[in-house]
Each structure stands twice: as structure tokens, then as C-alpha cells.
Amino acid sequence: MLLKIENLSVHFKQITPVKEANLTIDEGECVALIGPSGCGKTTLARAILRLQPQADINGHIFFEDGDLTQLDEDQMCAIRGGKIAMIFQEPMTALNPLHIVGKQVMESLVLHNNTPTKQHVLDLFQMVDLKNPPRIFKSYPHELSGGERQRVLVAMALAGRPRLLIADEPTTALDSETQSQILALLKKLQRELNLAILFITHDLSVVEQIAHRVCAMENGKILSGKAISQNICGKPEPCQSDKVVLEVRDLNVSYGKNHVVHDFNLKLYEGETVGLVGSSGSGKSSIGFALARLIDATGEAILNGQDFFKLKGKALKQARRDIQMVFQDPFSSLNPRWMIKDIIMEGARIHHINEAETHLSKILNQVHLDQTILNRYPHELSGGQRVRVALARALMLQPKVLILDEITTQLDIQTQTHIVSLLKELQQKEHLSYLFITHDECVLKMLAHRIISISKSGVSVLLERP
To answer: For residue 352, how many other CB atoms are within 10 A of its CB?
Structure first.
């Protein structure tokens, strides 16, 4: 037995997210830990590596021949990365935005290799199937796709050749093709290195592909063998409107000489959801960023009868209320220094929305958040709660079009179902239109009226519903 957790409880001030948890992992075994958002999965994983110094930990974490709860910080530093490594859920917050990723992986190698070279890093990138390793080496995190960033984290975790790998939702932000490749890679490394894996996920299809054993977690407790059912929201109501709220003509996006989106066209009707699918790096998020005027693009975007791309000053500020974006990575899009109330109300204050306080209560009810959350900070929330805060912030401006960039990928099945039901309810009541960027076919079946597929060359093709 490589890892044994006995009666582990983790306390933070007045809350206890992990309660008397018990878990064992053998050498070369993959144990999946599943459960709804906020049940304590990530807290348990971080407790193993003692990454929460403010937490009060009771119980035992036996690894190899010692109890990790009894080690001092210097001893834990030798464990982290060298014997136990972790792949974090949100790569944009795990990677330093000010340094190229090659340098960051090199830093990990320095801790475990006296003479690391650039070639060692390139070999790691090759191992995790990153294409064009020299380009990846000199790229900053924001210049990579979500899938590429996640592979960099996998490479960084493997730098010290650990015996136990803790993978916290490593495939949730990846398209199905990339997800399968990462899972195949982990399975291969597990066989070759006799690597033990604690795989945290809410995707039951992933569990089937990789796990030898499954443990479920609810309300801070591990319940071995407990099944979690998947609820089905049903297909969307047909879109009857013939009113076009957004028409995109010949949209092109380039990053320097890298042309990522080619002549993208779209008519989005009132009350309609268009699903935007494609492999990681195909340009899906770039389309969303361009339509929200967050990056430069060429072409036309006709919103409310005027070209949104040509607006300036007060006209642009007013039009921004009608098209809002909810980002893929909620943790990095929420100001960590602001309380939740300030985050949600920011747009309302900028645009001087009347009765904003009353509207805030309504929005909180719609996204199933309690009033007590308003005085908390983003790091105090679960992944699902952060997504709902980001959605509430966008809804405060009462937009006509929402660009939703992979907002359900980091959520457990139950929370996904709640969010999808919420989006459908809002759409029917407020006649909202959605451009829904995702790789989750199940979510597409529940939400999308039409689907556009983006190839790796940036070319779009209209598909039927799945």
C-alpha cells in the first residue's frame, strides 16, 4: 500500500469540508474520486500535499514509511513533486503568466535534476504529445490553448518522476479527442512507471476509461462504491423566432502570422442557442473573445442593427451591455481581492443600472446562490459556485446575447444539470440568445438548436443537432 488516509478531517475556521475521510491507494493503482462540486474532493487532495497552511488537519496520511501530517515544511518540500505530484484543475492560475512555460517546467526540473537542460523540457513536452515543442517552450500561458496548457501541467508534474500523481480534474477543459489522448498517456505512464494515480473527476465516462477503483465523496465524507446518477434535462424547446440579434460576417482572427479563424459566419436568432464545437486550439475561444471585442478581428458583427466592431466611446459602452461573455476559467476571471458582491455589482455600477440591489437578489435566486455568499472571496468558493458567480455578473447587465465559453466543463454532473436547466429557463423567460462553446456532447443535446464545428485550420462547418 502506497498511500493510506485514516480519519482525516480538514478544518477552516468555522467549516469542515473534509470529515473523517478514509482512503487507500496501492502502487500502480488508479483510484477515482468523484462527487458533486463543493463536496471536499480538492480540499482532500491539497491536504495530502499540505498545501493549505491555514487549515487544521486531524487524522493521518501515511505515505511509504511515514505520516505526512508529522513532517515539517522542509521535509514536505522534498515530497512535493519528487514523490507526490499534482496536476491542478485550473491551468491558467497554476502557470505564471509572466514567464514562458519552458522556463516554468525547467524550474520543476531544477528541483529534481542537478543539470537540467532545454532538451529535458522538450522531451517532456514530446512525452505528453505537445506538437511543436520548441514553439511551446517559448510561449506564454495565454498564447496556448486550454488543452496545451493542461499538457504543460502534466509535463511539469512528471518532471520529478513521482510515485503518486494527484490529478484534479485534468481533462474537464479538454475536447473529447484531446481528453482521450491525455487519458491514454496517463494509462501508458502508469504502466511504464508503476505510477499510482488519485484521479479527481465528475465525468463518469472518464472514470470508466482509467480507474481501477471508484470512491464517491459527499458532504466531506468518502462513501466507497456509492453511485452518482446522471440527470437528463431533455432537449431544448424549438426556437420559433425569426429575429436575428447577432449576425457575424467573414470574421477573421490572427495572432501575428498565425491565422486561427477563417471567414467565420453566423446568424444567431432571438432565444436560440448555437453550439460551437471543435478540438482544442481550433479557435473556438478566439471567436468568443473577438465577438466580445476583447481581441482584434476583422469582419462584421451586426448587433442591434449596427456593426459592433466599429462602435466607439459611449455607443460602444452601451452596446457592451447587450453582449456579455462568461469565461472558461472562472477563478482567473474573478478578482481575488474583491468580495463576491463587488464582483457581481461591478458592471451594474459602471453602467449605472437602476435598482441594482433589487436586481441582485433576483439574479442570485436565478443562479441558485445564497445571500451569505456575497461577503466571501472567490478562493472560498467551490468551482461550481465560481461559475455561477461569473454567470450572475454577466446577467446583471441584462444582455441579449451570452457567449458561454466551456462554462460547464469544470462542474460535476449534478451542477451541470442545474446550470443547463437554469440557462434554458432564462432563455425562455428573457429570450436570451447563447453562443455556447463546448466539447460536451451531452450538454449540446440539452441546449443547442444548431451546431457549428470548427476545424483545426479555423474553418467552420454547420452541423445538425447531435
So the answer is: 7
**Rounded-to-integer distance, Cα 30 and Cα 215, Å:** 11
Q: How far is CA 445 from the centre of its chain?
A: 20
Q: Which residues contact 285 (CB under 8 A, 6 or more apart)?
A: 145, 146, 328, 405, 406, 437
Span 417-425, mean pLDDT?
82
Helix axes 101-112 and 118-127, enclosed angle (nearest 10): 100
The tens digit of pLDDT for each residue in 40-66 reads 899 999 999 999 888 999 999 999 889
Give the up-direction half-sphere exposure of residue 246: CA atoms within 13 A in the CB hemisphere: 29
Give dist(CA 214, CA 203) in Å, integer.
12
State the Cα–Cα distance between residues 52 and 409, nearest whole angstrom: 25
**DSSP designation for 237:** P
Q: Please report, for residues 16, 106, 124, 134, 390, the alpha-carbon distance to residue 119 in angstroms, rounded to integers and kept in the order given.
A: 45, 10, 9, 10, 40
Residue 66 · residue 187 · CB < 8 Å: no
Assigned C-alpha cell, 65: 514509511
In this prediction, residue 67 has a pLDDT band, given cuts at 50, 70 and 90, of very high
What is the DSSP secondary-structure string of 90-106? -HHHHS-TTS-HHHHHH
Tell which residue, 35, 413, 33, has the closest CA to residue 230.
413
What φ, ψ does residue 427 adopt, rounded to 5°?
Answer: -65, -40
Is the dihedral angle over the CA atoms 110, 115, 119, 120 positive or is it negative? negative
Using the structure block, give the residue that is written with the C-alpha cell 496536476. Answer: 87
Which element (helix H / strand E) includes 22?
strand 15-25
pLDDT digits (tens, 9 = 90+) for 132-181: 999 999 999 999 987 788 889 988 998 888 999 999 988 776 666 777 87
pLDDT at 104 exceeding the cut of 70: yes
Tell me the three state secondary structure of residue 59.
strand
Say which residues have a Cβ less than 8 Å from residue 355's Cβ, sequence separation at least 6.
Answer: none
Pick from 269, 409, 204: nearest CA to 326: 409
Q: Which residues pair with 215 in a beta bridge?
A: 33, 224
